[in-house]
Amino acid sequence: MSVRLNHAAIFFNEKTGEFHLQGRNFSYIFKILKNNQLGHLYFGKKIHHRDSFSHLFTISPRSNTTCQYEEDESFSLELIKQEYPSFGTTDFREPAFQIIQENGSRITNFEYIKHKIFKGKPKLDGLPSTYTENEDEAITLELVLYDHLIETELNLFYTVFDRFDALTRSAKFVNKGNQRLSLTRAMSVNIDFFDSNFEMLHLSGAWARERHVKIRKLEQGIQSISSTRGTASSPHHNPFIALKRPETTEHQGEVFGFSLVYSGNFLAQVEVDHYGVSRVTMGINPFDFNWLLKKNESFQTPEAVIVYSDQGLNGMSQIYHELYRTRLARGPWRDKIRPILINTWEATYFDFDEEKILNIAKTAKELGIELVVLDDGWFGNRNDDKTSLGDWFPNKKKLPNGISGLAKKINDMGLKFGLWFEPEMISKASNLYKKHPDWLIQVPGRRLSHGRNQYILDFSRKEVIEYIYSMIDNILSDAPISYIKWDMNRYMTEIGSLGLPPERQGELSHRYLLGLYSLLEKLTSKYPDILFESCASGGGRFDPGMLYYAPQTWTSDNTDAVERLKVQYGTSMVYPLSSMGAHVSGVPNHQVHRITSLNTRAAVAYFGIFGYEFDITKLSEREKNIIRKQIDFYKKHQELIQTGKFYRLLSPFTGTKNEVAWMVVSRDQKEAIAGYYRILAEPLPGFKKLVLKGLNPDFEYKIEGLPQTYFGDELMNFGILLDELGGNWKKELTGDFVSLVFALHTL
Ligand code: DGJ
């Protein structure tokens, strides 16, 4: 039995019990083992289908430390690469799941029962996921396994996309018996790779320096990244890892990407065992997780998106970009050109009134900006970060005409209006807290810590979600709001819910996320035309889970152009330019106090969803003219930037680290924009050229502002000689923090 599309196919070899999942360029093969569990055979470059893959199965070499089945001396799970392994019956590696049973046992035995192969891709219960728009875009394999002793079903889902080299996986447990089971681990994916000749790439950092690229060689033992922050996937580690071959570069070689569609506690880990097998697992962090599964209850894991590329890291990124831009992000804004915005945060912080905002709007209009976003400080008595979260009604002292009055005035100027919310949080100094002190996440009798003077609303409770929904709905139904910045600025401590029974306290972090997702679903369904941008102290929740609801994310609170090179470069490993909010801010920069030119600030921000974030009413005429030109430039090339193919050219993390470059090429290869950045001036640096990628070798290109034309093959092999650029170009390359932007089009 097999189902095929243009490129993807899923085959089942009935006689040998083997499944072969084929993407455009990869094969993924596993089988039903003789104990009726599932054993993994191969994941890598596409290979031919055949009637039997038995010769790919390995079960030696056994050592003196191996334990084996009593009734079959040759069988040990320690020696077998598995699909969704358990712990405690001959395999000593960390498992994909663990279930504590009423008698205290943790031993399970899920055996294959049946499977279905069908076109399309089912939705996940209450969780964000990639999707198809019609059945012919993907094929799904759903396997049903059963543990007879605990009468529990395990469903494993695999989807192969036709257009992308991507495979998604998730699992679901259903308790069909009478026992109360406790799920203490339920990962989304497990893959046992044949060898460990890999490097692990991950995106790590901190607030204001998110998603820096780190690469380490795999070693025997466990290497992992995770979040325990509860409310966020975190700025410290992104829910993504890649295994690359040591020789794999940006543009060549094999790489396997693992990305989790989830916004909370996660774990991504590689365990290299004593045979050199690498076990990759990824899912909800089992640490501090405990889910009670009563009769007829089920638990669905988030989705893991696995990408295969033999075209290097850049090849992997392009697959993620296209998949996440077109089949994870949703709604009318997915494909629409996004407005250029001005955000008031770094312009005014909490200190504004209607007049100030209208003045900013007036200048914005003059400059060609399209959307004015009023950030924090518009509600309750919020004049600093100590009060009013939860009181989502306008501060009449600052805004005598309310949000609707202000929004209408801004609309009358021919601009759109956007508003900031931080719906998940509450201040103690708020009416909401007076009314519902029990709505905070807290543990009775224990200290309550704060983060930025705020506390977390218990989103595991339906009544809290409903209340916050109605508060936001009141504002949105009353005022012409085109955009929402959905912020979240603290992590969970003293994790407890007054709404959950003792045996369900270990479920709170995940239930919180389910509550958040349900609220976002409700709001985005009622207001599909509002553009959502997610934010968590900048890029603390830049993950595929949030991208499902908000097609763009505020990439980092760090708006310094030089720091942004690293943040945006790292973010581009997984996330498309259409998802990265990038603003030109004031100097000295508010985070690192660096002074960079207006040109360089824009040259970095062009490679994202462009905007401004400083007091534009104070600009000189000269600066205004520069900004008008920047806006014209961005508008002219916006479609290309939002939808083109992105190529990383020079990395801030390797080589000299002093030069960074990237480019975006239109799908038809007729247009491209390249950004080149040099951080510090160097004395006599040697000859410099910028070699481009992704162009059509046979097309002849004109670079705006340069006299001659170039063939694509010249630009991709010889490149652009930077030293020989004359006039203004040369001037731009003088001093520190300099940049050049090349706009190319065919003749
Ligand atoms: C954190 C965000 O990242 C900022 O952009 C800004 O919205 C502040 N919160 C407002 O409090």
Automatic annotation (TrEMBL):
Catalytic activity: Hydrolysis of terminal, non-reducing alpha-D-galactose residues in alpha-D-galactosides, including galactose oligosaccharides, galactomannans and galactolipids
GO biological process: carbohydrate catabolic process
Pfam families reported in the protein's UniProt record: Glyco_hydro_36C, Glyco_hydro_36N, Melibiase
Residues that coordinate or bind substrate: W207, D375, D376, R452, K485, W486, D487, M488, N489, C535, D557
EC category: hydrolase
Documented EC number(s): 3.2.1.22
Domain Glycosyl hydrolase family 36 N-terminal positions: 37-294
Active site residues according to the UniProt entry: D487 (nucleophile), D557 (proton donor)
InterPro entries hit by this protein: Aldolase_TIM (IPR013785), Alpga-gal_N_sf (IPR038417), Alpha-glycosidase_related (IPR050985), GH (IPR017853), Glyco_hydro_27/36_CS (IPR000111), Glyco_hydro_36 (IPR002252), Glyco_hydro_36_C (IPR031705), Glyco_hydro_36_N (IPR031704)
Domain called Glycosyl hydrolase family 36 C-terminal: residue spans: 660-744
Keywords linked to the UniProt accession: Glycosidase, Hydrolase
Entry's Gene Ontology molecular function annotations: alpha-galactosidase activity
Family according to the record: Belongs to the glycosyl hydrolase 36 family.
Protein name as it appears in the record: Alpha-galactosidase
Species this chain originates from: Caldibacillus debilis
